[in-house]
Amino acid sequence: MLDDLEAVSTIGGIPVVGIAIALIGSVFLSLGAQLQHRGVTQVEDSHGSGEKAGLSAGQVLRLLARPWWVLGTLMLGLAILFQLTSLGFAALIVVQPLGVVALVITALVNARVNHVQLDRKTWRAIALCVGGIAMFVTLAAFYATEHVLGGLQLVIVLGVLTGILAILGAAFAIWRKRVGALFYILGAGVLYGFVATLAKAVINRLGNGNFEWLTVLCLVAMLAAAALGGYFVQTAYSVGSPDLVIAGLTVVDPLVAVLIGITVFGEASNVPLWVMIVWIVAAGIAVYGVFELARHHPQTHRGNTADLTAVATELKALQTARKVIADPIALKVRGATPADPEER
Question: How many domains does the chain have?
Answer without folding.
Answer: 1
